[in-house]
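Supplementary Text 2. Reproducibility record for the structural model of the 347-residue chain.

All settings were left at their defaults, and a single model was retained for analysis rather than an ensemble. We include the record here because the model underlies the residue-level annotations in Supplementary Table 4.
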Amino acid sequence: METAVSNFNFWRLPKQLQARLGPIVQPPVQPREEYLSIDKIYQGDARLLLPRIAPNSIALGMWSPPYFVGKNYEAHLTFDDWQALLSEVISLHFPIINPGGFLVINIADILCFKDASMPRIQADAVSRKKSPVTREDVLRAMKEHPASNRYQLAALLGCSEQTIDRRLNGNNIRGGKYETQTRVKIVGGLVEKWAISAGFYTYDRRIWVKDAAWENSRWSSLSYKSIDEFEYLYFFWKPGILKVDRSRLSRQEWKEWGHRAVWMLPSVRANDDHEAKFPVELPTRVIRLLTEPRETVLDCFLGSGTTALAAIKENRRFIGVEIKEEYVNLANRKIYPVLKQPHVHGS
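Retained model, structure tokens:
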């Protein structure tokens, strides 16, 4: 029996990996018409369409999933739904990625993650507009007017009832005391757990630093929390022979970003046709770094089509999956004029 998938020699693997990967590297033969064609965009749920992609045919799966941050296209998801979606989609990539190939996920932490277990205590924010009324002033007024409620005390002291409650109890009676509090949810551990469970290994992680979109804003936070200006790229490797070819990049590109953990890339300022676009340079770098010309790149959360567009421009094939019809139509309008150009794929 001979097995050759993208120059991958199955018999060079250790015996335990041969036993583990055999059913995947050498899958049962299926009629070709059952597989999705390349250089096309498919509308539908990734969980239904990924099993229709030919095994060991994808050199790189790169996508940016819903972040669970309240965008319109993810508003229907609960946190449990979101976890189930991502874990299943990651698992479905393992059979279709080439041995030695990669799954790269672009994602960010959840900055306002609701946590009912957090104490409902309002921060005592100190600013130049803070009321001059002190706790001692409130206690003195209460002693002099023992029958007064906080509204009456506020009128006596010339402040708000909110200030009275905050000085006495450290609470904010308008919202914060009664609302579920939020915290930052670090998602990297979740994504890594799902990938390892699927059979992948964490190969690398990089940080995409976006431009300071808030630098000219007149608003600022009253907490110590930072403004979010970066996202993560997690690289997951499927066991197999990994080809490292430095000629894919120029010497200057290797120096500037090829081996750098932090990528400085301007974000897309005009999300006028999609809520969450990333710049075409982001998938372009990943594609050039990890794949060869004419290999196939998959994006199963295609959105406006940026990953497919980058693949075409770098002489790679692509498969796109997107659940929303309006985004499929948008991506097709962007991609197919480029795909039809005479120089694309040697046509």
